[in-house]
Design brief:
With 388 residues, the chain is an alpha/beta fold. The chain contains 8 helices and 18 strands.
């Protein structure tokens, strides 16, 4: 049996700016007539999550992620459709939700333990472990209203570790705590999932989505745009949301002087490409024109989509001379076996250099999108051997 079953779920918020609109909307709702204007936050959501699964929800701000979690947590009701959640639910939504800000941290822990059915020595032992996990020192005796956002997250997550709900729902929790606390939470989530727990995670961190979750959905304008493996969905979402490569407009260059006549990125079949996979063999070919007949130099560079340098080198470093094609044309060919670039978008830069290698004269850029299934982070793969 599924732990979560959602059928044709919708959430609509009518636009109400005055009492007249409020009365009109109430009448339309009572008479089962569609409300004339408003925001359709969730549209026809259908989803099944089985016990033991971990599902990430990604999407831009305003896509409906938090609204969906609030419905599944019982905080709000859908406008139409239905859903079922079997078992206990632990929800970490807005910071501080579930806590009384006027009460101290320890009083809130006691109330959480009581609501979870803990009594006597069991409750005392669990509250002690919650305090140890939260690790906020004497602040546990202070009112929650005096806490920082990170301290509230620590307290909330500490409750979850001892109540161990059948379903854990989290909304950007790992974005608030410090690095040490994040590691502690990730370790506990691994344990929780390993013992049969079920997780719904909202996060803007592609790293956390891919590290923690098996499956993911991508919400866009209240609809499920994509549903699949956490890796595939998060990569598709990432490619859609990162800054688009700017259109490359070549600078005006005197075509009678030194310049890049042609630049290409080629695959192993000698086909021009603008995409490759991490680990592929890729060729970079540049034809340079020299008005004097002297062989020009080539400077080759790679930068990330946000213009951070990844690599740079030039022909003189490698004592490399170009092939003379005649008529003032010279050709450089570079090969990278086992392309080390990790998935992302890059600029490949070809610079013509003067024959004395002292002056950059002309530049041509080519876009390259690198794909691949890996959970490595950064821009390049290092030749690391794990020895133990």
């Amino acid at each position: 049996m599924p732990l979560i079953k959602i059928n044709n779920l919708n959430k609509f918020y009518p636009h109400i700016s005055n009492n007249k609109q409020r009365l009109k909307s109430m009448w339309q709702i009572l008479t089962n007539n569609p409300v004339s204007s408003g925001a359709h936050v969730l549209k026809d959501i259908n989803l099944t999550v089985h016990k033991g699964q971990s599902l990430a929800i990604v999407g831009r701000n305003g896509a409906g992620k938090s609204t969906l979690l609030k419905i599944l947590s019982g905080v709000i009701q859908p406008s139409s459709g239905d859903f079922k959640v079997k078992g206990s639910v632990g929800a970490l939504l807005e910071l501080g939700s579930g806590f009384d800000p006027e009460y101290t941290g320890i009083d809130n822990l006691k109330m959480s333990a009581a609501m979870a059915g803990m009594r006597g020595q069991q409750a005392k032992d669990k509250i002690k472990r919650m305090i140890d996990f939260a690790d906020i020192g004497d602040y546990v005796y202070e009112p929650v209203k005096n806490y920082s956002s990170g301290m509230v997250v620590r307290l909330g997550f500490a409750v979850v570790t001892e109540t161990k709900p059948d379903l854990l729902i989290t909304d950007e929790v790992l974005a608030v705590g410090d690095e040490n606390f994040q590691r502690k939470c990730l370790s506990w989530i691994d344990y929780y999932l390993g013992t049969g727990g079920t997780l719904l995670l909202v996060s803007h961190s592609i790293y956390h989505v891919q590290k923690i979750c098996q499956q993911a959905i991508w919400l866009e304008n209240g609809k499920i745009r994509m549903h699949g493996s956490a890796y595939d969905v998060s990569q598709a979402y990432h490619y859609d949301t990162v800054n688009e490569l700017p259109e490359i407009t070549p600078a005006e260059v005197d075509q009678s002087g030194f310049h890049v006549s042609q630049a290409q990125i080629l695959n192993n079949n000698n086909e021009a490409v603008d995409q490759a996979n991490t680990g592929d063999t890729v060729y970079f070919k540049a034809k340079l024109f020299s008005p004097t007949g002297e062989a020009p130099g080539l400077c080759f560079g790679v930068v990330s989509f946000d213009n951070q340098p990844v690599y740079g080198g030039y022909s003189e470093q490698f004592k490399q001379q170009p092939k003379n094609l005649g008529g003032g044309l010279f050709e450089f060919t570079l090969r990278i076996q086992h392309l080390p670039l990790l998935p992302g978008r890059y600029h490949i830069k070809f610079h013509t250099m003067s024959p004395d290698q002292l002056q950059l004269i002309d530049t041509v850029e080519k876009p390259l999108t690198v794909k691949g299934e890996t959970r490595e982070m950064g821009v390049t793969r290092l030749p690391i051997e794990w020895l133990s």
